[in-house]
Design a protein that fits this description.
195 residues, alpha/beta, seven-stranded mixed sheet, four-stranded mixed sheet, 25% helix
Length: 195
């Protein structure tokens, strides 16, 4: 199976590649549109800032490639946010795969960024096959996707937000499956098994 991991200068890519190795898979880090389009699976990871990330995607032509993909795609953290309509971070127009807005957590008693383990619930995606309701996953983020049409799991931190999104062949998670232990490994295995 050919697994393309999209390279756009974002952090956290190595941990995704290592997580794939742990489940017996090999990811190919690439920014080549042809390799991405011909892959069996595409992973769109990311840690960073939305507006600068979108500029890099545009400079490489990936802003056109990514929304047009037909194979299973998995967005992770910033990758999920960039698949939404827009982000308050840098007042950014994103890729528009999911009709959701990304917003900054409001000031509250809880700390922002949201860092650490939190539970997910209300699953409606094959990514979660075989997992218990209220599994714990690992988060690091200050911005969140609102809940709505494509929400496929929810986490509550300050307010309920989309822990994951699903639309057609696009799956995306705000948390880091590569850092979420057994549950995260199971999600990656489930993603690779999607037909």
């Amino acid at each position: 199976m050919k697994i393309a991991v999209i390279d756009y200068g974002s952090g956290n890519v190595q941990s995704v590649l290592f997580a794939l190795e742990r489940i017996g898979a090999k990811g190919n880090l690439t920014a080549d549109p042809e390799l991405i389009q011909s892959a069996d699976r595409v992973i769109f990871p990311g840690v960073g800032e939305a507006s600068s990330a979108m500029e890099i995607l545009k400079s490489r032509g990936l802003d056109q490639v990514i929304p047009s993909l037909k194979q299973p795609v998995l967005g992770i953290c910033l990758g999920m946010q960039l698949l939404c309509e827009s982000s308050e971070e840098g007042n950014t127009t994103c890729l528009g795969v999911f009709p959701h807005r990304v917003m900054r957590f409001p000031a509250a008693a809880e700390k922002v960024p949201h860092v650490g383990w939190n539970s997910i619930s209300s699953y409606s995606d094959t990514l979660y096959a075989g997992l218990n309701e209220h599994e714990f996953v690992y988060y690091v983020h200050s911005y969140f996707a609102e809940t709505g049409l494509c929400t496929s799991a929810i986490t509550d931190y300050i307010l309920p937000f989309s822990a994951s999104l699903k639309r057609n062949n696009f799956h995306a998670v705000q948390f880091h499956p590569e850092k979420s232990g057994r549950a995260g490994e199971r999600m990656l295995q489930n993603f690779l098994s999607i037909s």
